[in-house]
Amino acid sequence: MLTKFWKQFKSGTDIRGVASEGVPGQEVNLTDEVIEKMAAGFALWLAEAVKKYPAKLRVAVGHDSRISAGRIQAAVTRALTGAGAAVLDCGLASTPSMFMTTVDLGCDGAVQITASHHPFNRNGLKFFTRNGGLDSPDIEAVLLHAQNGDTPAPAAGSCEPVDYMAQYGAHLRDMIRRAVNAPDYEHPLAGFKIVVDAGNGAGGFYARDVLDPLGADTAGSQFLEPDGRFPNHIPNPENEEAMRSVCAATVAARADMGVIFDTDVDRGGAVDAKGDEINRNRLVAIASAIALEGNKGGTVVTDSITSSGLKDYIEKTLGGKHHRFKRGYKNVINEALRLNAEGVNCPLAIETSGHAALRENYFLDDGAYLVTKIIIKMAQLRAQGKTLDSLLEPLAEPAEAVELRLPVTRENFRECGAAVIAALEQYAQRQPGWEIAPDNREGIRVSFGKQNGDGWFLLRMSVHDPIMPLNMESDSGGGVRRIAEQLYAFLRTCDGLDISPMEKFLNR
């Protein structure tokens, strides 16, 4: 069992902690000593996984733009080379590219130093093998090695700088050239204007190394230079301020499309020529339309909070099947892998957060790959006299959508959350007009008819935190409030649940 100290670093399938000073009340816990123990633990875990001695391992190491990246990379490298491993120093890199080093460079494993969209003072580690990212039990095993002080036998390793991002960018360029097949083959994006917002993370390469050489006009792109303090906005396609920023930049540049990445580029979002977001349900819809080409009747795995309109779009417009699963990018990916192993044709696993993994790309959640596929589709549609909007026209979008986050105040928050959901299921079964979704696999989702709210709610437990997120959608104005009022009658009876966010919403 992990002690409280080491358990604090486990964040699902990642390791995260405080790496830099500067935020009151948050002391640095990702010290050099801690990082070296974690890296040594990964070396032991990886050696066992690939059946090699630690001194025979070949491991790629990269990082995003955070201010603590250099210090942490040095600590990781010391631990790995001290175990005799050959380290490929990839420098500033995207998280998906670090997985691809196991494919293209024959690495046994890879380490990405990142904390995704979290604040500048935080950082962490993501680990990969050729089979993909480590799962939660694997992370626990790495941390147990670190906790126990397990280290490989000392040996003399090596460290070699490698510009793998150049190879990764070339691969994306080749994808676009082949798929668009324009008369000017080398410049298939000539005549397109595309704005890139990298949020000062690792995604600036996309404008410089992918779009510009293909003839695209990227004037108006913003925050391409890496700056680990993220001075302009949080690099996160789910962040409202970030999306407002890229939407405004796209309109100001009169661009055909805008794209935005999170810090380590494993998520992406897009903006159409009118400045409207292609995000959340709209992003899932476009990704589904692309993934189901050549996969007629295929299954799309999504997270649990997708809209009813999206289900109709996937099943009635695209002729596919919608498999609504759980929140958490590894959850949807693992479910897609499971379905494929059972013989189900499942080409896409995607979260509304922007995490999207296609079977054709190793089920790797890669924001740059997804955006590349969308740009290809935009170019193909233009050749037919169409736009991305035409692809989305059949998608019915909700009139209202709200997410509230209800804190769980009990120390045993998971047990408390499970009890709330169980009680709500029993309550819902007794309420006239409440229909429990038969295909939901997380929390409880209840639908309401046109006279009773014309929408649905989903109450679930957060993947990591003592929070119960509540999502509500309605296809009619005022419908969300109607649903919330009915649900409030139950929530006010729950012990251990802070319902003040619901009360604040109802009192607005």
Shape: globular
Give me the Rg, rounded: 23 Å
CATH class of the largest domain: Alpha Beta
Separation of the first and last Cα atoms: 46 Å
The number of helices is 16
- Return the structural class: alpha/beta
Query: How many strands in all?
Result: 22
Largest sheet: 8 strands, mixed
Give average pLDDT, whole number.
96
Question: What low-confidence regions span 5 or more consecutive residues with pLDDT below 50?
Answer: none
What is the CATH topology descriptor of the largest domain? Alpha-D-Glucose-1,6-Bisphosphate, Chain A, domain 3
Q: Can you tell me the CATH architecture of the largest domain?
A: 3-Layer(aba) Sandwich
Classify the helix fraction into a percent range.
Answer: 25-40%
Multimerization status: single chain
CATH superfamily of the largest domain: Alpha-D-Glucose-1,6-Bisphosphate, subunit A, domain 3
Overall domain count: 4
Beta-strand content: 15-25%
Structural description of this entry:
A hairpin with a 7-residue loop joins strand 19 and strand 20 (444-448). It is built from 16 helices and 22 strands. The chain folds into four domains: 4-162, 3-Layer(aba) Sandwich (Alpha-D-Glucose-1,6-Bisphosphate, Chain A, domain 3), CATH 3.40.120.10; 165-276, Alpha-D-Glucose-1,6-Bisphosphate, Chain A, domain 3 (3-Layer(aba) Sandwich); 280-374, Alpha-D-Glucose-1,6-Bisphosphate, subunit A, domain 3 (Alpha-D-Glucose-1,6-Bisphosphate, Chain A, domain 3), CATH 3.40.120.10; 400-507, TATA-Binding Protein. It has 508 residues and is α/β, with parallel strands linked by helices. It has helices spanning 4-7, 32-50, 69-82, 95-104, 136-148, 164-180, 205-211, 240-252, 281-291, 308-317, 329-341, 367-383, 388-392, 413-430, 479-491, 500-507, and strands spanning 10-11, 14-18, 58-63, 86-92, 109-113, 122-129, 132-133, 158-161, 194-197, 257-261, 268-271, 277-278, 299-302, 321-324, 348-350, 356-358, 364-365, 400-407, 434-436, 444-448, 455-459, 467-474. The longest helix has 19 residues, at 32-50.
